[in-house]
Design goal:
The complex is a heterodimer of chains A (about 300) and B (about 325). Chain A has 14 helices and 1 strand, in the order ααβαααααααααααα. By secondary structure, chain A is mostly helical. The relative contact order of chain B is 0.17. Chain B is globular and about 60 Å long. Chain B has about 325 residues and is α/β, with parallel strands linked by helices. A 6-stranded mixed sheet of chain B has the order 5-6-7-3-8-9, sandwiched between helices. A 3-stranded antiparallel sheet of chain B has the order 2-1-4, with helices on one face. Classes of the chains: A mainly alpha (about 300), B alpha/beta (about 325).
Chain lengths: ~300, ~325
């Protein structure tokens, strides 16, 4: 094969000003790069930054399109979180009675449900973000990290609707509006970074192992029961060995829930939070945000191949 | 999307003797026949002369032709899992896991068996060949969407591939698709605003009614293809790969898109066009590569290669 090929090249090169150059040398001479090669991390980040309008527009368009098939349309943005909270209140509040020992259980439950929902849907959407957008990936060239990030932005936009509902619920249960509510902003910011990182991480795994999309709902549900959504984690930690308790208390989803409750409810004292809570949660956000981004970038050239 | 050829001879490339005979017999003196070990004769010389003519017609700053795509002896092998029996039932999947056999039937399809060519700035290259000859596979590889088993592809910038079933966001309106498509290609918001009307006019979507504000899932396949091409063609591409994407458009649109391809070439881009419509290849391309069974049968001026190809196809009937 090689002899055939070399004969051809030398022959064609005879009619060329670049005679005698091998294809690789020719490519180097004119600055051509290997097709489909992954850009360096800084240049990838620059490309991603230049697509920021795409990410936001994509997320907004998707959010608007999400309920177009329903007759009530955008009302579902608000209805979905309300119904969620109602179902969980029925089961865990009225039927099982897990509210023992938790003052203002409705506010406690709704905060937990909405805040965890943000992480949950970001992870689930992130896992499918590559496989669900193969058409777009194969048609247009853009940094693929746009997709998991855009799906996280969609979930963030949905959470903002939920937070509006949540604010009303919490005020209705008799909590006062205090300056502490401002802490909602940094909590949401950190959680968004954390979720985006997790979505990026899962997007790469989900793009290779499509079985993950089937498996993730179970993983997420287990995580939810460990994250103090329906009951205080002290239920487990009281009797568990010290190291188990420490691990359970480091759970980022739990910390996000607790911080959000602390921000919005005066009935949650600062003493209920672990020590160095902001440091821990910022650590989680940076670790997952950067780690997920780099992990996703390392397979950039492989998305959409097949 | 997998255009595959199943005939494979253990990785070795064998050009059928019959193929040689056909190419030689049918007066292919001007076709740069890329056949096994064939000495490069008149065909190459004439191709060279033609290149010289083109260089004179299109003087570049340095006075030499600048390559944009170099394909260096690429082989592409599809690995297809579960092609054989055994997949589909849960019990067989379970028994596979238990017995630790990885895959019951891994079929390898050697779709492209050593293709090499160099494309230059301002060229429009047609790719022709029967179904399963490796045309779409080659384009996907040039676009970086398929890994090559061996060999290398060098490109100037990032080629854009426009396929026939490259879906956009079907649940969004045509309008949204235009804006999002442009943003994804890296345009700024002001650029999108400037180009928006041009893209819609070019696609002709709004000729009869206000279709652009309807979700794209309501479009006919021709309308969707027209809008996709209009979006992709709005940007100046260094290398644009078009895979049958124009086939579904009506005649008026095909004329418009051919004009646009010529413009893109003037802007020093390189255009590849896969089509089974020989007339549209003749109208748009000055050079044509004929693929057959994953190998290049001929590479040369469009008129000659297409005539060869037509004779060959007639002979196969």
């Amino acid at each position: 094969m090689s002899t055939v090929y070399e004969q051809r090249v030398t022959g064609i090169a005879g009619a060329n000003p670049d005679a005698g150059l091998s294809p690789a040398e020719l490519a180097a001479k004119y600055g051509l790069s290997v097709s489909g090669q992954r850009p360096s991390l800084p240049s990838y980040t620059r490309q991603l930054w230049s697509r920021r309008h795409f990410i936001v527009s994509f997320a907004t368009a998707r959010l608007v399109a999400m309920y177009t098939a329903a007759k009530l349309g955008q009302i579902w943005q608000v209805m979905t979180p309300l119904l969620n909270a109602a179902v969980y209140y029925l089961i865990f509040g009225l039927l099982l009675g897990t509210n023992r020992g938790i003052p203002n259980f409705i506010a406690y439950l709704c905060t937990g449900v909405f805040v965890f929902q943000f992480t949950q849907s970001a992870v689930l959407a992130g896992t499918r973000s590559i496989t669900d957008s193969l058409g777009l990936i194969r048609a247009l060239h853009f940094p693929r990290a746009c997709l998991p990030i855009a799906f996280t932005v969609i979930q963030l936009q949905q959470l903002l609707f939920s937070m509006g509902v949540l604010g009303v619920i919490i005020l209705a249960t008799g909590e006062p509006l205090t300056l502490r509510w401002l802490l909602v902003v940094p909590v949401l910011l950190l959680q968004s970074v954390f979720n985006a990182g997790l979505a990026l991480f899962m997007a790469r795994i989900g793009s290779k192992t499509t079985d993950m999309a089937q498996l993730m709902p179970f993983v997420i549900r287990t995580w939810m029961y460990l994250s103090g959504v329906f009951w205080a984690v002290t239920t487990f930690t009281a009797k568990a060995p010290h190291w188990v308790a420490t691990i359970l208390n480091m759970n980022p989803a739990l910390i996000f829930n607790d911080l959000m409750r602390y921000a919005m409810m005066t009935s949650v004292p600062a003493s209920s939070l672990p020590h160095h809570v902001w440091l821990i949660i910022a650590g989680w956000a940076v670790l997952f945000g950067l780690g997920g981004y780099v992990f996703f970038w390392r397979a950039e050239e492989e998305y959409g191949r097949g | 999307m997998a255009e595959t050829s199943t005939s494979e001879t253990g990785g070795q490339v064998v050009v059928p003797e019959a193929a040689l005979a056909v190419a030689a017999k049918s007066g292919a003196e001007r076709v740069a026949a890329v056949l096994a070990g064939a000495p490069l004769t008149d065909a190459e010389r004439i191709a060279g002369e033609r290149a010289e003519l083109e260089r004179a017609a299109r003087p570049s700053a340095t006075g030499e032709r600048v390559p944009t795509v170099i394909v260096d002896d690429i082989h592409i092998i599809y690995k297809i899992y579960g092609a054989g029996a055994g997949k589909g039932s849960a019990t067989s999947a379970l028994s596979r896991i238990v017995s630790r056999r990885t895959s019951p039937a891994l079929t390898e399809v050697h779709a492209v068996k050593g293709i090499s060519f160099t494309a230059y700035k301002g060229e429009a290259i047609g790719l022709i060949g029967s179904n399963g000859s490796g045309k779409s596979t080659t384009l996907s590889a040039v676009a970086g969407l398929l890994p090559v088993a061996s060999g290398a592809i060098y490109t100037d910038g990032q080629p854009s591939l426009l396929g026939v079933n490259a879906a956009m966001m079907n649940d969004l309106t045509g309008e949204r698709n235009v804006v999002l498509g442009c943003l994804a290609m890296g345009m700024s918001k002001t650029e999108v605003r400037e180009r928006y009307q041009g893209i819609v006019d070019f696609s002709g979507i709004n000729e009869r009614d206000d279709f652009i504000s309807l979700p794209m899932r309501t479009y006919s396949s021709g309308m969707a293809a027209r809008l996709r091409f209009s979006i992709a063609a709005a940007k100046t591409h260094d290398v644009l790969l078009i895979d049958e994407a124009l086939a579904t458009g009506d005649t008026a649109f095909q004329k418009r898109s051919e004009d646009r391809i010529r413009e893109l070439r003037k802007e020093a881009g390189t255009v590849f066009l896969v089509s089974h419509n020989n007339q549209s290849i003749r109208d748009t391309c000055d050079r044509t590569i004929w693929l057959e069974q994953g190998l290049i049968r001929a590479d040369g001026p469009t008129e000659d290669v297409v005539r060869e190809y037509e004779a060959y196809m007639k002979g196969r009937k």
